[in-house]
Design a protein that fits this description.
about 0% strand, about 250 residues, mainly alpha
Length: about 250
């Protein structure tokens, strides 16, 4: 199938582009930080190590995926590879979805590799759920990066837009809590700001509910809550893929 072939090409490009070495460097940095914390922490050293290492590896996974997707698309555009692919008798949907599938596999591989060291501190069940969540979260980041890279056609704006979307989605729960806090004055301007924050929150994925360090520290989440969070991520990935396909067809027509 053309989609499978394109996904395989994405994997080959990621391997040849040095992504495994960057992942290995991220793991080494996390383990060195864990060793350092074991020497300086006075109490709860294992919990502190787990929390810091998990947060660092999640951030590294998101960053590596966003940069890999943006760099891959820009390289193909600059080398005229995209024009060559579009000249072939291949449906544009297959081209776009094949690349997205390949980046999704890259995200899953990174999640698996980054989850393995956490087995030294957390239970296998909690680590498995954390890895599944990180894989889907990484796929969402890949879909967003692919959309912005295809739309903006420049690597820096594409990475910045992806990072902005991710950070805003991650911090939206805190922003909502601040906007609805008891210290907020009941003025018209504050009420309008609160409604604006709620409206923006409806358009963003609930990333604060996924890949949580609490799962590793205090046990696996409730099955219903976990499945609901994963389903929400899946819906947002589909929406991003649909938006990217629409833009890809419009520009290539």
């Amino acid at each position: 199938m053309p989609t499978a072939i394109l996904a395989r090409l994405v994997l080959v490009e990621a391997r040849r582009g040095g992504l495994p070495w960057l992942a290995a460097g991220s793991l080494a940095l996390a383990l060195l930080l864990a060793a350092f914390l074991s020497q300086v922490a006075l109490t709860e050293a294992r919990s502190l190590q787990l929390a810091v290492v998990a947060a660092l590896l999640r951030a590294c996974a998101v960053f590596l995926i966003a940069v890999q997707v943006s760099a891959s698309v820009m390289r193909e555009v600059n080398d005229k590879g995209l024009e060559l692919m579009l000249s072939l008798p291949l449906a544009r949907a297959s081209h776009y979805l094949g690349r997205l599938a390949g980046f999704g596999i890259v995200a899953a591989a990174l999640a698996l590799v980054f989850a393995l060291p956490l087995l030294a501190w957390a239970s296998p069940g909690a680590v498995a759920l954390w890895a599944i969540s990180l894989a889907l979260e990484g796929t969402l980041v890949a879909a967003a990066a692919l959309f912005f890279a295809m739309t903006l056609a420049q690597p820096v704006p594409a990475i910045a837009a992806t990072a902005g979307l991710y950070l805003l989605a991650r911090s939206m729960a805190a922003i909502q809590a601040i906007a609805a806090g008891p210290l907020v004055e009941p003025s018209v301007a504050n009420q309008a700001a609160r409604f604006g924050v709620e409206a923006v929150a409806l358009l963003l994925p609930s990333l604060d509910a996924v890949t949580r360090t609490e799962w590793l520290l205090y046990g696996a989440p409730d099955a219903a809550a976990f499945l609901a969070a994963m389903a929400a991520l899946g819906v947002y990935v589909v929406l991003l893929a649909a938006a990217g396909l629409f833009d890809f067809h419009r520009r290539s027509a």
